[in-house]
Amino acid sequence: MHVVIWTIGDNRFATPTQDVVEAISVVDVRSLPSVDPWVCGLINYRGRPIPLVDVSKLLGDGAAKRQLYARILVVKRGAESETEWLGLLVESVLSAESLDFDSAETAPTDTLPPQLPFLGPISLFGQGSIQLTDATKIQITPNPASHL
User: Fold this and answer.
1) How far is CA 142 from CA 8, 57, 97, in A?
2) 44: nearest Cα among 32, 35, 52, 36
3) pTM value > 0.70
């Protein structure tokens, strides 16, 4: 499988390249009221408003570090429709590689938190591990607590 490898903190993740539209520099974000706290807001991606998710916050690690090499991965969340695109704020994009997640040593999937269904298997490659992600499983919902 051909994937884009990216990081949050010391953890490496992989997203299939077929789901990645582009990796871009961090841009201005328009905030959105009443959404999940890990949704930064909307970005203007080539004239299209798309939601931006702070993956570090989604994972419960606090806001992503906005360093020089931070990037936004524009990903597809379903059909080819551009309305299904999403921006993922990640701390860095490392590379695009072919990795065989089927033949790698994997951690048991029953250890994955059920509230994070976009996280897939953790596979061991060389001296480290990489966790496969599925952006189609990231669901943005209104946050009722924000109306209080």
Assistant:
1) 25, 16, 36
2) 52
3) yes
